[in-house]
Amino acid sequence: MLKQIKQHFDVSSLSIALFIKGSLNTLNSYSINRRGLSFQQKDNLLTLFNALELEKNNSVVINETVEVLNKNVHTTLSPLVTALSRRIKKKEQLLQNYKTSVTYYLRGLHACENLIHKTTFTEEQQKWIILRKKHLQQKLQERATAILQMHAELEGLKARKNSLEKVQLKELLF
To answer: Is pLDDT at 1 greater than 90 in this prediction?
Structure first.
């Protein structure tokens, strides 16, 4: 539960400990099942966790696959094309990770929106939720820019690789 809260709200253990009004050591002990939390602390954690609505959103994960390079092509391609292929694969994987993190941030942002309208929180907890929301909005904006830039770089690398492959194929044919 703590891991999912950290992942979706993009917070540290210290931030969660401050939210539930406990110490970092208590929270760390709780995470390894060495110590328990008070009812109020557990209630605050459960409120954050339930706001994520994880059970209802199992289909949010993006289902994109990475291209599998043909093994026979590796033996005929030059080292430059092989290096480009590795760079493309790493960029695609990084792009996929960025897209996955965006889904986590969106879910956390949605949870913040739901929590803002509750009146059962103290003023300090409301401020924490509002700050989380602003932080997640900034992260989303940064990730969107990074995804656009990475997509452009990826397309450029693919075009470069394709042009190098065509040059090699022409040389082999003549």
So the answer is: no
